[in-house]
Hints:
CATH superfamily of chain A: EutN/Ccml
Number of strands of chain A: 6
Distance between the termini of chain B: 21 Å
Structural class of chain B: mainly beta
Oligomer: heterodimer
Helix content of chain B: under 10%
Radius of gyration of chain A: 13 Å
Order of helices and strands of chain A: EEEEEHE
Shape of chain B: globular
Number of domains of chain B: 1
Helix content of chain A: under 10%
Amino acid sequence: xxxxxxxxxxxxxxxxxxxxxxxxxxxxxxxxxxxxxxxxxxxxxxxxxxxxxxxxxxxxxxxxxxxxxxxxxxxxxxxxxxxxxxx
Amino acid sequence: xxxxxxxxxxxxxxxxxxxxxxxxxxxxxxxxxxxxxxxxxxxxxxxxxxxxxxxxxxxxxxxxxxxxxxxxxxxxxxxxxxxxxxxxxxxxxxxxxxx
Lengths: 87, 99
């Protein structure tokens, strides 16, 4: 799974139908100290993460397909947890 | 999903039967530095190699799209299809405010 920080959101009307109604957030992969590495990615968000919160993004398509209730959906990245603190 | 700018289209003359009739876009993936200028015209090419993605939504050159990659890209097809990148969203607006 990927540790990432929410750095924005995106709106799209023309998309695969299984994404309808889902929040699409821009997740910037970060390391433990919060330093960004890599390009920003997008993920569907069932957890209601706010801006600049650190989240955990899972790229397991099977769980994401169950979440969107469409077995033929290409969805893959999904926010599965919001991080409080690291030790 | 990765963001990218469509920089061209691909017409296949010969391909495996599963890929016939498809519509293919060449997408240049966005990098962190190039992200704010994603919608600028003409599109700024990122450093990463471009990706050819299957497209069902009608993306054109210059559009900002979201690409899904990996095994999940072939999920929407009934028959097994050898593709690993699919255009899943034509991005209308990006509200980007990095920390």
